[in-house]
Design goal:
Layout (H helix, E strand, L loop, with lengths): L1 H9 L1 H16 L2 H11 L8 E3 L2 E3 L3 E3 L10 H5 L5 E7 L12 E4 L4 E4 L8 H9 L7 E6 L10 H12 L5 E5 L14 H12 L7 E5 L5 H13 L4 E4 L19 E4 L3 H14 L6 E4 L5 H10 L3 E4 L1 H4 L8 H15 L13
Parallel strand pairs: 3-4, 3-13, 4-7, 7-8, 8-9, 9-10, 10-12, 12-13
Antiparallel strand pairs: 1-2, 5-6, 6-11
Helix pairs in contact: 6-7, 7-8, 9-10, 10-12
Bound molecules: flavin mononucleotide (FMN).
C-alpha cells in the first residue's frame, strides 16, 4: 500500500489534480490571488501587447490543456500570465484515454501526453466560464470535436462549440492538432479545413478566431493552411501543438504513446513560426508555443515572428522554478527591451 501511494504520488496526472485542488482555493479568494500576484507577477507597461483588438498586459500566456475545464483561470492568471487559454472543450463530456497517460521525460526536459481530451463537455464548461465574466486578463477558449464525431460531421461540432462559448471568451482557438484524438489532425487538410472555418465564420460573430496547428506538418501542408487562413480571414495561428516525432530522446519513457512537448519540441516549433511569418509577410499574427522555459526561448520565438508566446511544460516541469516562469520571462524581456532600445515587444517581432 505504502509503495502504491508513493507511485501514485509520482503520477504526473495525480499531481496535476492535486495542484488543481489547491488552485481552486485561490480561485475563490481574491486575497490569496492578490498575494500570489505580489510573488509571481511582473509588470512593465512596455510589455503590453495589443493584438486581435485585445489588450494583453504581457506577452506570456498559459497554453491549452492545463485548465481543461475552466476551473481555475483567475488563480492561474495570478502567476503573472497575460492570457490563459482554457480547454480543449468538446461538445460532450469525455473520459479520454485510459491512465496512465502523462509521462515526464526528466533527462529530456519533456513530457509525453496521451490524454485524448478528457473534459466535462461544453454545458458544464460554460457554467464555469460564467464565473470568470469579470477578469483582468485575456481568456482564450480552445475547442475541439468530440472523439465520437466523424471528420465529416466535425464542422458541426466546432460551429456549436463556437456558438456556445464565444461570448464568454476573448478569443477562440480551434484545435485541429492534438495527436491523441484519432484522425483529428486530418482536419488541417484543405478538404476539411475550408468547410470547418466557413461553418464557424458563418455566425458572423466578431470574436477573434485562431487556428492551432501541429508541428509535424509538411511545408506544403502549411501553405494550404495559410491560403485558407488568409482567404477566410482567420485572426491568427497558434504554433504549435505537441509532436509525434521522437528524435534524440534519452529518457526511459521516450517510447510512450502521444504528443511530446518541452525542450525537444522547441526548435521545430520555432522553425514553423519563422516559416509562417515569412510566408505571410508578417500579415498573420502568431502565438508561439513549444519548449519555452525561459526568456531566451521566448525571445527566440518572438524574433522568429511570434507576437505572443505560451508555456505549458515550462510551467509544470520543475515544481520550484515553474511557477515563476512568466515572471522570469517578463522580467528578462523587460531588460532586453531596455538594451535593444525598443519601446515595445512589437518592435522585436520578426527581428532576426
Ligand atoms: C499534459 C498536456 C495536455 C495538453 N492538452 C492540450 C489540449 O487539451 N489542447 C491543446 O490544444 N493543447 C494541449 N496541449 C499542448 C500544449 O498546449 C502546447 O501546445 C504544447 O505542450 C507545447 O508547449 P510546451 O512545450 O510549452 O508544453 C497539452 C500539453 C500537455 C503537456
Amino acid at each position: 500500500m505504502g509503495k502504491e501511494r508513493f507511485l501514485n504520488f509520482q503520477d504526473p496526472e495525480k499531481n496535476h489534480e492535486r495542484v488543481l485542488k489547491i488552485l481552486q482555493i485561490a480561485e475563490s479568494s481574491p486575497r490569496i490571488r492578490y498575494f500570489l500576484r505580489k510573488i509571481f507577477a511582473y509588470q512593465d507597461p512596455k510589455l503590453e501587447v495589443d493584438l486581435f483588438g485585445l489588450h494583453f498586459t504581457n506577452p506570456v500566456g498559459l497554453a491549452a490543456g492545463f485548465d481543461k475545464n475552466c476551473q481555475v483561470p483567475k488563480a492561474l492568471a495570478s502567476f503573472g500570465f497575460g492570457h490563459i487559454e482554457v480547454g480543449t472543450v468538446t461538445p460532450l463530456s469525455q473520459e479520454g484515454n485510459p491512465r496512465p497517460r502523462i509521462w515526464k521525460l526528466v533527462e529530456d526536459r519533456a513530457v509525453i501526453n496521451w490524454m485524448g481530451m478528457p473534459n466535462v463537455g461544453v454545458e458544464e464548461f460554460t457554467r464555469n466560464l460564467n464565473e470568470v465574466a469579470e477578469r483582468d486578463f485575456i481568456l482564450g477558449i480552445n475547442i475541439g470535436k468530440s472523439e465520437v464525431t466523424s471528420l465529416e460531421d466535425a464542422s458541426t461540432d466546432y460551429k456549436v462549440l463556437f456558438k456556445k462559448t464565444h461570448s464568454y471568451g476573448d478569443y477562440i482557438a480551434i484545435n485541429v492538432s492534438s495527436p491523441n484524438t484519432p484522425e483529428l489532425r486530418r482536419l488541417q487538410r484543405k478538404e476539411f479545413l475550408l468547410d470547418l472555418i466557413k461553418e464557424i465564420k458563418r455566425s458572423g460573430e466578431l470574436t477573434p478566431i485562431l487556428l492551432k496547428i501541429d508541428p509535424d506538418l509538411s511545408y506544403s501542408q502549411i501553405d494550404d493552411i495559410l491560403t485558407i487562413a488568409l482567404n477566410c480571414k482567420i485572426d491568427g495561428i497558434i504554433a504549435t501543438n505537441t509532436t509525434v516525432s521522437r528524435e534524440n530522446l534519452k529518457s526511459k519513457n521516450r517510447n510512450k504513446p502521444g504528443g511530446l512537448s518541452g525542450v525537444p519540441l522547441r526548435n521545430k516549433s520555432t522553425e514553423i513560426i519563422r516559416y509562417l511569418y515569412r510566408q505571410t509577410k508578417a500579415s498573420l499574427p502568431i502565438i508561439g508555443v513549444g519548449g519555452i522555459f525561459n526568456a531566451e526561448d521566448a525571445l527566440e520565438k518572438i524574433k522568429a515572428g511570434a507576437s505572443l508566446v505560451q508555456v505549458y511544460t515550462g510551467f509544470v516541469f520543475d515544481p520550484l522554478k515553474g511557477p515563476f516562469v512568466a515572471k522570469s520571462i517578463n522580467k528578462e524581456l523587460s531588460k532586453v527591451l531596455e538594451t535593444e532600445k525598443a519601446r515595445s515587444i512589437g518592435e522585436l517581432v520578426g527581428r532576426e
